Amino acid sequence: MLPEIFRVGSFALPTYGLLVATAFLVALALTGRLAREAGMDRETVVNLGIYCVLAGIVGAKLLMLLLDLPFYWSNPGEIFSFATLQAGGVFYGGLLAALATAWWFMRRKGLPFLATGDVFAPGVAIGHAIGRIGCFAAGCCWGVECRRSWAVTFSNPVAHENVGVPLNIPLHPTQLYEAAAEMVIFAILYRRFHQPHRRGAILGLYLALYSAARFVIEFFRVHEQPNPFGGPLNTSQWIALALIAAVAGWALAARRPDPINL
After folding, report:
1. pLDDT in tens, 161-181
2. What is the DSSP string of 206-224?
3. Is 233 left (phi over 0), alpha (psi -120 to 50) or beta?
4. Roughly how many angstroms between the first and final C-alpha of the chain, as a whole number?
5. Overall pTM surpassing 0.85 (yes/no)
6. Fewest Cβ atoms closer than 10 Å to its Cβ: which of 35, 88, 107, 122?
7. Which DSSP category does 226 fall into?
8. DSSP secondary structure letter of residue 255
9. Which helix (H) or strand (E) holds 179?
């Protein structure tokens, strides 16, 4: 679509990078505002967000490398190639790394884990939606061939050179599917946040809704690595099922009155 905003000589401003930076700023600004509404220290929560974003970038890249380990083992120079550095990585790797970092930081600062997770969830959803639009502009995370009226066809050779997206073939716009799902999830979370809720309810709702959406979208997305266990489900779908099961188990165990009125 539009992998570069502009190019001057050898310098190019990638659309993906610009939108990811925008997503980061929007998510942090929203999280800081919700933290203040929840009576938390805004600066501490924003600092936590910065740590989580950095951990998320590293975690997403690491899971991407692990899933394509045979390729990178045979081509170690590709680890530091422009295509690998530009790729967003696997979101679940970033999410798990961010959650681990959040647990460490919150223990150190004495922040309540579930209430803080509630504050972050809407920002993560809206930030991820903006980031997926960046994926669409760059051409990465593309879908399988599609003959529907809403199919998209990439034709920019820069996109193919950077991320390998096939050109002149109608594809499912899986990036836009996910962006739309995240926007709906954000609207649900933001509304629910301002209603009485148990601690952790917003975080749990985000994990369940996103995992369900991602599980379905993965059926329409291209995957170059083989599915684990030789079955029809890929790694992201197994993680999605595990998160849904974990949230369901937590919800059943936490069925006790503990309302928070905001």
Report:
1. 888 899 999 999 999 999 999
2. HHHHHHHHHHHHGGGB---
3. beta
4. 42
5. no
6. 107
7. P
8. -
9. helix 174-193
